[in-house]
């Protein structure tokens, strides 16, 4: 009877954790997606590491740095959700209690990876800044050793920033894992400043200054510089949206603390809401730069224009070839704006213009 009663009690306790278990399972699934996606991009970057141009090596290095940081952070999150679901499934098992120094070191290391991933966007912002404002000083955006040095500084800074939180003991065991308690106002404020606001603020300042420089000097750029700047400008806008997205998804932790101090209430779902939004922010927003890198690499392949049996055309220049240089593409007369109906291959355009009556009567 005793064994039967204890089994029933365990089942009853487990049933009370069903919502937690469901959210734990969702968290594990999202973490697995994040780990797999970042791992795939890391492999793709390593496959393409033998590039000859220094600027491409730098782009791949910066992307590798970002995805490796996200990969490590996602692994720690996966470990955390596994600990949580084990605790919610077997809440009475003493061995589940993991309130140890290693538990605090794990959350510290995961924080280092998180800060490193945020600083990776800062370094990308710095790279774009140098390419646009110091375009005539190649050392700042071509020298790969310069960026290896910067990445070394990133690792050091990312390791030191969360140390105060660890040393003053704000990492506590809660809900079968270690974290800053959401009711700990001091710890949350320190984390908000050291983990989020510092790297994100530096990134925003760099981008704002870059955009300001572009607007003030746009008339001075050559056509080639303008084309490069337009490409960088698109990337800048994407990363600014990424930063906004990260800030928005980082708000649940702070808002939970504010609600606690105002109303004295913290929902059972607060931890899950905080960590699930972290995972979603990284899954949804850190994929575009890699897509851009892969696309840039693919654009260098030579392709065949099947319509006219032309070979060895750069994939990235295919649209320009059709719209600007292909001699067999049909084009309109230059006098089409004054109703010339002619339409024919580009190589016949000059002959047509010599006899075009519309072109001859065009007003000066």
From TrEMBL:
InterPro entries: GPCR_Rhodpsn_7TM. PROSITE patterns: G_PROTEIN_RECEP_F1_2. The keyword Transmembrane applies. Its main location: membrane. The chain crosses the membrane at residues 20-47, 59-85, 105-126, 138-157, 188-210, 239-263, 269-287. It is found in: Membrane. Coiled coil: none annotated. Residues 38-292 form the G-protein coupled receptors family 1 profile domain. GO terms for cellular component: membrane. Keywords: Membrane, Transmembrane, Transmembrane helix. This is G-protein coupled receptors family 1 profile domain-containing protein.
């Amino acid at each position: 009877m005793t064994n039967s009663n204890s089994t029933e009690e365990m089942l009853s306790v487990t049933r009370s954790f069903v919502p937690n278990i469901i959210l734990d399972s969702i968290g594990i699934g999202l973490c697995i997606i994040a780990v797999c996606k970042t791992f795939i991009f890391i492999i793709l970057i390593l496959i393409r590491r033998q590039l000859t141009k220094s600027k491409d090596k730098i782009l791949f290095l910066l992307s590798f740095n970002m995805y490796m940081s996200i990969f490590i952070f996602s692994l720690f999150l996966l470990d955390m959700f596994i600990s949580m679901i084990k605790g919610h499934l077997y809440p009475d098992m003493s061995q589940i209690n993991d309130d140890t120094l290693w538990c605090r070191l794990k959350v510290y290391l995961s924080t280092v990876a998180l800060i490193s991933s945020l600083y990776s966007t800062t370094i990308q912002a710095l790279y774009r800044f140098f390419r646009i404002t110091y375009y005539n000083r190649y050392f700042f955006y071509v020298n790969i050793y310069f960026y290896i040095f910067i990445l070394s500084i990133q690792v050091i800074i990312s390791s030191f920033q969360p140390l105060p939180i660890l040393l003053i003991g704000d990492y506590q065991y809660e809900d079968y894992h270690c974290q800053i308690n959401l009711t700990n106002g001091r710890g949350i404020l320190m984390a908000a400043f050291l983990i989020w606001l510092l790297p994100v603020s530096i990134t925003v300042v760099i981008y704002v200054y870059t955009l300001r420089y572009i607007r003030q000097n746009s008339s001075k750029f050559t056509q080639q510089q303008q084309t490069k700047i337009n490409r960088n400008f698109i990337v800048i806008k994407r990363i600014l949206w990424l930063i906004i997205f990260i800030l928005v998804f980082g708000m649940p932790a702070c808002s939970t603390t504010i609600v606690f101090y105002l109303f004295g209430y913290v929902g059972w779902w607060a931890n899950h809401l905080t960590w699930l939004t972290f995972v979603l922010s990284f899954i949804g927003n850190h994929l575009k730069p890699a897509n851009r890198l892969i696309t840039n690499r693919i654009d260098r392949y030579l392709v065949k224009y099947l319509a006219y049996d032309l070979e060895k055309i750069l994939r990235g220049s295919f649209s320009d070839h059709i719209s600007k240089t292909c001699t067999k593409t049909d084009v309109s007369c230059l006098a089409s704006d004054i109703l010339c109906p002619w339409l024919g291959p580009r190589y016949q355009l000059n002959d047509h213009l010599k006899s075009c009556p519309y072109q001859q009567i065009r007003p000066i």
